[in-house]
Amino acid sequence: MTDAPLKLFNSLTRSLEVFEPVHPGEARVYTCGPTVYNYPHIGNMRAYVFADVLGRTLSWKGLKLTHVINITDVGHLTDDADAGEDKMEKMAASQAQSIWDIAEHYKQAFWADVRALNIRQPAQWTVATDYVAQMIDFAKGIADKHCYELESGLYFDVSTVADYGRLARANTEEGEGRIEAVEGKRNAADFAIWRKTPPGETRQMEWDSPWGRGAPGWHLECSVMSGEVLGFPFDIHTGGIDHREIHHPNEIAQNQAHCCTNGLDDPRNSGAKVWMHNNFLVERSGKMSKSSGEFLRLQLLIDKGYHPLAYRLMCLQAHYRSELEFSWEGLGAALTRLKRMVMAVEPLKAVEAQPVAEHPKFAAALTTFDEAMTDDLATPVALTALDEALAVKKVDAGVKRAVIEEMDAVLGFNLFGLTRADLRIRPKSATITEGEIEAALARRKEARAAKDFATSDAIRDDLSAQGVDVMDGDPLGWEWKLS
Ligand code: AMP
Ligand code: ZN
Q1: Of the N and C termini of the chain, which has fewer Cβ atoms inside 10 Å?
Q2: How far apart are CA 412 and CA 115, in angstroms?
């Protein structure tokens, strides 16, 4: 393996930077996690696939990784303004359920998707409601110099820190366009760090504070959890590109206030050295949005017969900073590619990995792989290097296994754990069982051996009527698929 230095794109400086850890030999990463008021859609999961590949790459480069992902179970409003309702409270009211049960249910659903996509467990999941006392302390510490109180809550005055909004390029781009209607705010961009419960109302989740009973603001939560667990400044903060506009600039402003430092010319004053953002997964029909009834959840893909790792592969076929358009055709192509990979790995399963010595047959692929991953996680190119390595013939199988294992540890497909059977998922709409299909195919084989083509054709037609395509001579060796 060549040893190229890892370069990452820092949204704060809008440039590629060689990664230099704050603590030598370590990498401390914070990822903004989901608001658990509903199922995550597959676009949300792209953010965690990205963060996972980042974490795997840091580990692969020999750094001791501490990755934290939070779970937002309070405080995230229905819009970025301060006047909206709390997403969690709103869902709890609409389902007439306890907010704590809602949070637990959707947290578990999120974790199921995390496992299905082979996203590694972070060192810690921080749950916002476990940190409310620390949030109040943090807010107390900055209140005098940086905040003011209104009837609806404690507000952060963004004019009290230098370079507010630099991450969003608010002064030069469109980022600033968010005037909203909280009377008495000093600046349009000021935001609530503590939201008081309106008189006469009760929230299911509320706490006492020096500013009255209420709940923390969403931005405060991430500042507190990241700083508490990783210590300021830490290395990398990640999230989806939408967070670059408001959530992260506000976190940065709070971090500056808390650390008593100003000015973002030194990125460390922002609380993290590097801020990274994945671009969006987009879908033309708009089905992805959580508010539109049926939306694109990972389970929907599985119900239609696509293995979840095909979606992981689809994500990695695009660079994380590019928009990715979802289509069923694209997902189908990714599934076929994954099947090919699993087929190519099959003969290596019985051998033991040899330590990867320099091997001329793999040198080019390994160099391509390293150069790609260290070039801001260029996974589309890294995948071609994996294909190249899988195609190497007439070579010691143990060496090949070691090379593939190394690449797979970074890309995260669990190629040696996956079987062809795993990848063949019955769509929910199919009624015939796998056992019935296999039995029919065995009868058909016998008929063909006996040259009884009438029976053989009849079995094939019968299967076809039940939605099963028989695939004689399939180059991948797949005998059937559900159409
Ligand atoms: P939320 O639960 O809304 O806070 O979102 C969880 C994560 O998903 C955040 O990092 C968002 O920035 C990210 N995200 C939301 N929509 C998409 C999308 N369509 N594609 C990629 N990431 C997204
Ligand atoms: Zn966050």
Answers
A1: C
A2: 11
Structure tokens at 198: 């309106």
Tokens of 450: 């006996």
> Does ligand 1 have an atom closer than 6 angstroms to the CB of 207?
no
Closest residue to atom 1 of ligand 1, CA basis: 34
* Nearest CA among 5, 51, 57, 7 for reference residue 32: 51
Cβ-based neighbours of 270, under 8 Å, separated by 6 or more: 12, 167, 233, 252, 255, 256, 264
Residue 257 contacts residue 146 (beta carbons within 8 Å): yes
pTM for this model (two decimals) = 0.90
Torsion angles phi and psi, residue 173, rounded to 5: -115, -165
Give the bridge partners for 237, in sequence order: 30, 275
Q: For 22-282, which CATH superfamily applies?
A: HUPs (3.40.50.620)
Euclidean distance between CA atoms 409 and 100, whole angstroms: 36
Report yes or no: 66 and 104 within 8 Å, Cβ to Cβ: no
Cα dihedral 104, 110, 116, 120 in deg (nearest 10): -100
Over the stretch 365-414, which tens digit does the pLDDT of each residue have? 999 999 999 999 999 999 999 999 999 999 999 999 999 999 999 999 99
Here the tokens at position 103 are: 């949070």
Question: From the alpha carbon of 33, which atom of ligand 1 is closest?
Answer: 6
